[in-house]
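Page 47, continued from p. 46.
Same chain as before, 222 aa.
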Amino acid sequence: MQTDWNPLLREQFEQRYWDELQKFVQDERLRHQVFPVDDDVFRALHLTRYTDVRAVILGQDPYHGPGQAHGLSFSVRPGVAVPPSLRNIYKELLDDLGIEHPGHGNLEAWARNGVLLLNSVLTVRAHNAGSHRKQGWETLTDRIIQVVSEKPEPVVFILWGNFARSKAPLIADHHHIIESPHPSPLSASRGFFGTKPFSRANDALVASSREPIDWSLPPLDS
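Result:
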């Protein structure tokens, strides 16, 4: 992990759970198709430097369909159909800030602009949602949340759904938390729509004398 996260997380890689987790994932890759590919497992940390984090959007585990997951919560690879939850996120983005659907589901522009798109579990077996939970990833990603919480400058944590909201106790009081139901089709109409998380995040950042986030997503061919 050749980023500024490395010294902050290095002690995790020396613990027993880490060795057991790596063995589990390697065994899974030998027996099953596992997403994302090795090179994309830590993509969120590679695209968003620790020093640049201004907002965090927490997901649960990667998409489990072929070609979808690439290491960023809610994001899919270029050319892949936009999943239902992300379609609802785009609807709220349009209602909140007037930003149109970009025609793709790739959120790398957000990641490069200070938004840590972090899943709690970083791998998954194909077509088997949640199959890599409780194997050790949560220990690492909880530590990532705590490390971000240790930043002295305020960060906005966007917690969609009960799972993400359960991480609120890891977040220090000087940060700003935006909570709502999950954007999935099952729950978006029960309180996600109309919450305006993007403008609220920027309002919180500006109030803390931090740069707001550019939430626009350019077309992939631009």
